[in-house]
Amino acid sequence: MPAVTDNVFRALADPTRRAIFERLARDGEQTVHALTGRAGVSQPAVSKHLTVLKRAKLVRHRREGRETHYSAQPQALAPLVDWMSVYGAFWRDRFDRLENLLKRMDK
Amino acid sequence: MTETATTRTLVIEREMPHPPEKIWRALTEGQLIEEWLLKTDFKPVVGHRFQFRREPMPNWNGIIDCEVLEVETNSRLSYSWGSLGLETVVAWTLTPTASGTQLRMEQSGFPSEEGANYKGARYGWRNFIDNLERLVGRLN
Asked: Mutating which of A69, A87, A96 best tests the B interface, going by the most B Cβ atoms within 10 A?
């Protein structure tokens, strides 16, 4: 298990961190402030969780004025994803489309 | 699906009531490829580097980087397929049958079963992983 994968697992083993990451992945970039409002824990705790997620390269931050904005980096999950099932669904769909195209080519 | 010690291969096979020549066109002519697969600047020339593209989305530029590896007209085509940090090879094989063509797609080079097991029940986060897969699935 490469170290980077290990970091990703550790980062996501905590339910609060998982929730924060899922929210960023689903809703896009957010400030610590906005995340705190919905995480049900204190701002320092959220900041700490974000630091762990950052170390695993699961989130990225940028400063704008006084606020720090965080966004999810789903490609850091690449080592965890079951690519076989993702691509299995993808190709089956594309096979269907190919068959439709072949039928249309007859006309 | 087949497995080796280090990587896994996805195989999808379907018999189609069309001659290999026609399926070959759909696999190799840019305009036709775009109708069923993705936008591309593919050319059936070994060594040609090309891309499949879809609209960019948050955290993904929508680009799949490829290189043509094999071209045997009407029978075999393969290219590398690099996207989101994963490098695989997609190979198409066309075999004539009595009523058409057996079309086989093999995508090889997926991370090994060992890694997949590791992610499994160990932390009881199966649902979370399913959600992630849906998320990444949408990227396709």
From this structure: A87
CA B81 – CA B107 distance, rounded (Å) = 9
Instruction: Please tell me whether the interface predicted TM-score (ipTM) of this complex is above 0.95.
Output: no
Cβ of residue A45 closer than 8 Å to a chain B Cβ = no
CATH of domain A3-79: 1.10.10.10
pLDDT in single tens digits along all 140 residues of chain B: 444 457 788 999 999 999 999 999 999 999 999 999 999 999 999 999 999 998 776 556 788 999 999 999 999 999 999 887 778 999 999 999 999 999 999 999 887 655 444 443 334 344 555 555 565 555 44
Whole-model pTM over 0.90: no
Measured between beta carbons, which residues in chain A are less than 8 angstroms from residue B19?
Answer: none
C-alpha A68/C-alpha A75 separation (Å) is 21
Statement: B2-111 belongs to CATH 3.30.420.40: no
Among the partner residues B16, B36, B132, nearest to A81 by beta-carbon distance: B132
Domain boundaries, chain B: 2-111
Q: Where are the domains of chain A?
A: 3-79
Interface test with chain A among B128, B130, B139, by most A beta carbons within 10 Å: B128
